[in-house]
Amino acid sequence: MNNQPGLPAHAIPSSDTTASSPATPRLSPSRQKKDVDYVFFELTRSICPQCRRVIDAHILLRDNKVYMRKRCPEHGLFEGLVYGDAQAYTSSARFNKPGTIPLAYSTEIQQGCPHDCGLCPDHQQHACLGIIEVNSACNMDCPLCFANAGSGFNLTLEEVEGILDHLVETEGNPEVVQFSGGEPSIHPQIIEMMKAAKKRNIRHVMLNTNGKRIADDDEFLQQLAELHPSVYFQFDGFEPETYRILRGEPDILPQKLRALDRLAEIGANVVLVPAVDRFVNLHEVGAIVSFAMKHPAVRGITFQPAFQSGRHGKADPMQRLTIPDILKALEEQTSGTLMVSDFVPVPCCFPTCNSVTYVLNDGDTILPLTRVLNVEDYLDYITNRAAPDLSEEIKTALEGLWSSSVVPGSDRAAQQFALSCAACEIPGGLNLEAFAKNIFMIMLQDFMDPWTFNQKNLMKCCKEILLPDGKQIPFCAYNNVGYREQARVQLQARERQRNQARRTGTPYTPEPLTFSF
Fold this sequence. Notes:
Number of helices: 16
Shape: globular
Structural class: alpha/beta
């Protein structure tokens, strides 16, 4: 036979073709080959939105947007919007700085990412931000709660102390610990837990709260005044309809405003955290910035596009809100006071997960740092460019500012900001002292959901859920792969068994948390 390697049998030419054979007919115009309407950018790993099995996924560029397409052998084809600006997505690679290795890992590589969390030796970043969910209960019932908060468990002080000790073991000098939930402020030992973090010289201790207890509890407010944590404050806008849809409480705004005013009275540093939905409150982001820059307690904002995890209802994955959408809305709604070009990817995690800018806000002037300093010269790890007249200390300061572990309002942030601006082309009338005292951070943090879950991003995640028994699980793995559900069942069982042992006066040693997929 005249077989030709690489050709299927039906394409093998016949050996008895003669000169008299008729010519191959031309294809009709309707059968001409066509280009697809997208560019295949890369192959990664993701999960099926229904069964959560790990599957291949294609990252596609189409109409200057980024999409993920994947096929589950059981549930078929899925596609979702990942990023609203393909040009920004592809160019952000230059901000992908090398990760930092933790001092110790907590798990071994057995099943492969994302089923060995963590942190396992395959993970490419340490924990910039450690999150401790001290309870599952909440005094709200938000329709979009990614944690699916409700009655279940309370961690004990001893468990939290063990978590903190392990974090110190893996990090040495941890930057930030955030106490979350549920609603952590209603945990009966939350003050003792935050004190335990302070005793371990963790630089920044943060309370993630909806503000209800702060608004109404004088004793709790006084305890916060003495402890002086940073406050990560849920704040989605100003319209009753916004709070009805997102939080189930259309009349909650006055209570939130009261809580913020009380935090200002004790000199607290607050970061507002709006969850933003394309069809609910995207039109309010400019008003949130204007309000925040005028409020004496607020030192920053972290906008979070709503994502389809936990209790979030069904939504069109092709209409998902992304960071570029919020940036464009900010530019439009602030009439250019903030511009898309003012924001730079955060390089410690995967650069499309975060964008941030720092602004001088002294009441008269609003000046983003990026307009007086070419930040890219100091965060470009691909070409390793550096301006010859700037020192290594300034480069280090900029890297610190563009990090997920920075806390606005802190002394460290002020020092880094002032040091960075030693090289700025500072306009007349401004001085370093004003820069240091009036830093305002605006960050955008995008979290993955089952439609957009990208193993590549996950492996660079620097925000970890800290669990009893030493596991540190990347935030987007915890909320999407099945860790949260399994942890909750086991922590609820611990609570019941601990209470039973207490009633009977018998010792109790909990079984370690385990996960299977």
